[in-house]
Design brief:
Helix content: 25-40%
Strand order of the largest sheet: 2-4-1-5-6-7
Radius of gyration: 22 Å
Bound molecules: guanosine-5'-triphosphate, magnesium ion
Length: 349
């Protein structure tokens, strides 16, 4: 699962990225416009994996991972705009986290979070309109697929109203037809409100909350700089530092969990004496596609998935007993995997 940190220059993407990954990528003016993309991995805390491991005592415990990409966008011409060279990197990721600046900039400008949200929305909308218009132009000369012009026209009209494609009801068939475009406004989006160190506990500006609610976006307030500093400390030092600030916890575990939910991610589990492990998939993923997360051979040779819920397993504390109680199911390729399913894939490969 690849998630892109996006937003305007100086919003704190690299700072948040460092906090998340524990890396030390360069931040601030020195790094500005470098066009350097940072890529790092974050483990998703999951108490269920620990619970499974306590029973199976496996050789190895593996948590789900989110790959974060810090998309270093060279600032576009004229203030708060994006250079279009940033768009291909954004298309590559499966979900977007927009970092917005709510702290005073290095040169003392106050944050304008609502403006940044609206402006990025505009940039992403334009980024989606461009390939649609190009394709429609070509379809004047060449024959497309049946219904293609109508579908693209529908998307275009929606975008021209300033609305993201993720708000549009699309049939499964339409979704497949347009998947090659990797539309930006179709990707799940989570907002990180990057606040000044002293503002972590302040309520979110009502105008901003109203915008987020109207656009069905979740906002996580945190201070990137504070989190980055915390991530450089030992656990004991972290506790002391947090206590000094009157805070109980770092925002990162909360952020990773919220990212998971907002980005419509869930985990399925595999468990046994060798390894207990959580795997990340999008909500709505079929069993055969989930198998492909583990190995393409298992996807290709998929026969059945044996599924039990985490809760049933924890009740009996043994897979054999879950089976005896008739609570293990055999599911086919099209079964939609649920969060917390423990799965054994049967395959011929
Ligand atoms: N006060 C304060 N400053 C912050 C915070 N987060 C980031 N900054 C500062 O804001 C400046 C810009 O942060 P970066 O992380 O480099 O921003 P960016 O979005 O990666 O910028 P580009 O790489 O140019 O796109 C740096 O000087 C950071 O130290 C914060 O939470 N509070
Ligand atoms: Mg940066």
């Amino acid at each position: 699962m690849k998630v892109g940190l996006v937003g305007f220059s100086g919003s704190g993407k690299t700072t948040v990225y460092n906090a998340l990954t524990g890396q030390k990528a360069e931040t601030g003016y020195a790094s500005r416009g470098s066009g350097k993309t940072n890529l790092g991995v974050v483990k998703v805390p999951d108490a269920r994996v620990d619970a499974l491991a306590a029973i199976h005592t496996p050789k190895k415990i593996t948590l789900a991972e989110i790959h974060f990409v810090d998309v270093a966008a060279p600032p576009g011409a004229g203030g708060r705009s994006l250079d279009t060279s940033a768009l291909p990197a954004m298309r590559e990721v499966e979900a977007l986290v927009q970092v917005v600046r709510a702290f005073p900039s290095e040169d003392g400008k106050p944050g304008e979070p609502l403006g940044e949200l609206q402006d990025l929305q505009t940039e992403l909308t334009l980024g989606d309109l461009a390939p649609i218009e190009k394709r429609l132009e070509r379809l004047k000369k060449e024959k497309g697929k049946p219904g293609e012009i109508e579908l693209l026209g529908k998307l275009k009209a929606h975008l021209e109203e300033g609305k993201p494609l993720r708000d549009l009801e699309l049939s499964e068939q339409d979704q497949t037809a347009i998947s090659g475009y990797r539309f930006l406004t179709l990707k799940p989006l989570l907002i990180v409100l990057n606040v000044a160190e002293g503002d972590v506990d302040k309520p979110i500006d009502p105008a901003l909350s109203a915008y987020a609610a109207a656009n069905k976006l979740s906002i996580i307030p945190l201070s990137g700089k504070l989190e980055m500093e915390l991530s450089e400390l030992s656990p004991d030092e972290q506790k002391a530092f947090l206590a000094d600030l009157g805070l109980s916890d770092t925002a990162l575990p909360r952020f990773v969990r919220a990212a998971y939910a907002a980005l419509e991610l869930i985990s399925f589990l595999t468990a046994g004496p060798d390894e207990c492990r959580a795997w990340t998939i999008r909500r709505g993923t079929s069993a055969v596609r989930a198998a492909g997360k583990i190995h393409s051979d298992i996807e290709r040779g998929f026969i059945r998935a044996e599924v039990m819920t985490f809760d049933d397993f924890m009740q009996f504390k043994s897979e054999a007993k879950v089976r005896e109680a008739g609570k293990a199911r055999l599911e086919g390729k099209e079964y939609i995997v649920r969060d917390g399913d423990i799965i054994h894939f049967r395959h011929n490969s």
